[in-house]
TrEMBL record:
Membrane topology: Multi-pass membrane protein
Molecular function GO terms recorded: heme transmembrane transporter activity
Protein name per the record: Heme exporter protein B
Subcellular location, record wording: Cell inner membrane
InterPro entries found in the cross-reference section: Cyt_c_biogenesis_CcmB, Cyt_c_CcmB_bac
TM helices/strands, residue ranges: 34-52, 58-77, 114-136, 142-165, 172-194, 206-228
Amino acid sequence: MKVLSPDTLPSLGSAFFGVLKRDLSLAYRRRSDIFNPLIFFLIIIALFPLGVSPERKVLAELAPGVVWVAALLACLLSMDSLFRSDYDDGTLEHLLLAPQPLYLLVMAKVLSHWLITGLPITLFAPLLALMLYLPLDAVMPLVYSMLLGSMVLSYVGAIGAALTVGLRRGGILISLIVLPLYTPVLIFGAGAVTSAASSHEYAGHLAILGALLAGSVTLAPFAIAGALRISVEG
């Protein structure tokens, strides 16, 4: 087992923040990466009352599930591009050959994805939920559940993106791989908001989301790193 000396710790930190800064800078230049998921999220929320019912009571009951499904699909929409550009320009091969652990660099890329996609969706979710007449008592539980759940969506979705990065049309395969794994996040995320809207206890749902996040942060980077090696070297 290789033991890291104190001299290597700054290099690990600089590599992590270097990848994070690079991805955020590229996203700022390609602003469609930021706005496309948000616009998609907004369109789903805006069209739902037109397709179902504009009645306040109906929308209030369905708001938790609608907001969470829209957030899940918006996050899934952006997953295909997570490693695609790095694969096309050869950057991904350099990451695989870097002296720093690949799982650490992968964590930086997933964090950047969440900052670009998950965090804006979380910030806009309360406003759009109020458009669907979600009770005010459920707004903060919605924010809490989205903060936890959106990070899980980024980590789990990155596994599917890593497995399909070498395929030209991997978007559909990502959906098939990731959607079953997204189901628990959707259930407990929407369940927390529904319980809060009904004046019931919702801490248990958030605790399960926190456990899912802890498991994702611990295990997903290693799975993503292994999937990238298989996709690139295979």
